[in-house]
Specification:
Flavocytochrome C3, Chain A, domain 1; 5-stranded antiparallel beta sheet; alpha+beta; binds succinic acid; 7-stranded mixed beta sheet
Length: about 525
């Protein structure tokens, strides 16, 4: 049986950041598809860091906490934003080419809820791809990359993680024993029908940790990105918030710009507010567009988006891009401390799969690539201080019970419909109870360690993981009887605890106004 020091599950930026800094260890990186299939590769906007002369980590800190609706882990936020500029500089020294002006100064974009221009980008709108590919190329010579194997369950001895079971496309099940396991497999965007996430993001790592008994946190906080390209009733890709940062405006089919009546930050208001406003406009029968006529060099600044529009028959010369909100980011996840440790011994989590508390109830734009880099390095540094004691294999003993028979599973589409309709942008007790009752029909699959997932096909395992994530999000959303950030309850619409630059902000039915 293969043995190793560290197993990393996932291949996005957070996974590669840990791997990069563990050159001296024996590391295996296991990914269910090819290494390049990750949300990080799709990230357009960039990396937020207070590098401008008129900016400071304190401003970045305040913006992160305000967007996060005071639900953040303050200590971890401080660490993130203080480390940001240093981290960025280190990658520039290593050779990452971020976009600069003619004088070699970093070009800084602006995104929602940022008080300053501080978004560093690469390849125009291909930051995630540029950075993730760079890390992969730096890392691949000393990390063993295992592609096309889905991690299906953790190998456990009581509360100690000893490794992971995987399954490949031929149905072969393998066991990998390791001193430490790091879950870096992203969030669970695919549980919703409309999402900016890669199709492979079915919440596998989160469900696997839950089955093993790890504590999860903040699962009700789901961020919907306001502007996905919307074609024939389907979201087909992301239109970065940086587009609004460069001057685009949200309008209805009649050309009416509406965000300035809703929030004093207008089109760059926090994402939850923009998404709810668009959602409500669409519920009333409107179509919503981004008016991009103010952006002169659109195709140079946004080559990826221009290509996406072209592929989908949208002529950017028309100045209008049809948009709708879609699931973008899970603020919750596997609960970790500042070193990435979960409540299970030897099990770590990082990136979107983890909940370090840095994003609070609503993530500030472009903080997630930064989180992946900063906390990836921190976990690697911490792991470097630990011994590589191999688990005692005689103790490997998952308490797996077999289901007597294999009951019918729903389809992925059915799960997505339930989540979008009842656990989406607007939630209510009645809707959440409906969703929970629906999920309860599949309760046997969701319970911790009650069945042997190895007997299931990869598609069935993904469905089980989606059911697990969906049920947990719905249960957590029912329990949180308030509206906050990415969790909006129409039966608890008022929240008077948010302040912006010292002034109180009030929400009345999704309309947010600053008290004067
Ligand atoms: C975007 O480009 O709008 C997405 C960036 C992010 O979610 O951080």
């Amino acid at each position: 049986m293969p043995q190793t020091d560290v197993i990393i599950i996932g291949s996005g930026l957070a996974a590669l950041s840990v791997a990069y800094h563990l050159r001296h260890k024996h590391v295996k990186l296991i990914t269910k598809s090819t290494w390049s299939e990750s949300n990080s590769m799709l990230a357009q906007g960039g990396i937020a860091a207070a590098v401008a002369q008129n900016d400071s980590w304190k401003n970045h800190f305040e913006d992160t906490i305000t967007a996060g609706c005071d639900h953040n882990n303050v200590k971890n936020v401080k660490y993130l934003v203080q480390e940001g500029p240093t981290e960025l500089n280190e990658w520039i020294q290593r050779g990452v080419k971020f976009d600069c002006d003619q004088n070699g100064r970093l070009l800084l974009g602006k995104e929602g809820a940022h008080s300053h221009h501080r978004i560093i980008h690469a390849g125009g709108d291909a930051t995630g791809k540029e950075l993730t590919s760079f890390l992969f190329n730096q890392t691949k010579s000393y990390v063993q990359i295992i592609e096309n194997e889905i991690a299906i369950d953790l190998i456990m001895d009581q509360n100690q993680c000893q490794g992971v079971y995987t399954k490949n496309k031929q149905g072969e099940v393998k066991s990998y024993i390791s001193s430490h396991v790091i879950i870096a497999s992203g969030g669970c965007g695919a549980v919703y029908g409309q999402t900016s996430n890669a199709d492979v993001i079915t919440g596998d790592g989160i469900a696997m940790a839950f089955r093993a008994g790890a504590e999860l946190s903040d699962m009700e906080f789901v961020q919907f990105h306001p502007t996905m390209l919307y074609i024939s009733g389907k979201c087909v890709g992301l239109i970065s918030e940086a587009v609004r940062g460069e001057g685009a405006t949200l309008i209805t089919q009649n050309g009416d710009a509406f965000m300035h009546n809703i929030h004093y930050q207008g089109d760059l208001a926090p994402r939850d507010i923009v998404s709810r406003t668009i959602f409500e406009k669409m519920e009333k029968g409107n179509e919503v567009f981004l008016d991009i006529t103010a952006i002169k060099n659109f195709s140079t600044r946004f080559p990826t988006i221009s290509a996406l529009c072209k592929q989908n028959g949208i002529d950017i010369a028309s100045g209008k891009i049809p948009v709708a909100p879609g699931m973008h980011f899970l603020m919750g996840g596997i609960k970790t401390n500042e070193n990435g440790e979960t409540t299970i011994q030897n099990l770590f989590a990082v990136g979107e799969a983890a909940c370090t508390g840095v994003h609070g109830a609503n993530r500030l734009a472009s903080n997630s690539l930064l989180e992946g880099l900063v906390f990836g390095k921190r976990i690697a540094n911490y792991l470097s201080t630990l011994s590589n004691e191999q688990p005692d294999l005689r103790k490997e003993s998952n308490q797996i019970k077999q289901l007597k028979e294999k009951p019918d599973l729903p389809t992925k589409k059915q799960i997505q419909e339930i989540m979008t309709t009842y656990v989406g942008i607007l939630r209510s007790k009645t809707g959440l109870l409906y969703a929970i009752n629906w999920f309860e029909k599949y309760r046997e699959y969701i319970s911790i360690q009650i069945f042997n997932v190895k007997d299931f096909t990869i598609n069935e395992i993904e469905i089980i993981n989606m059911l697990t994530n969906g049920w947990i999000i719905a249960m957590s959303a029912l329990k949180r009887t308030e509206s906050r950030g990415g969790h909006y309850r129409i039966d608890y619409p008022k929240r008077n605890d948010l302040t912006w630059q010292g002034k109180q902000v009030i929400i009345t039915n999704s309309e947010m106004v600053m008290e004067v």
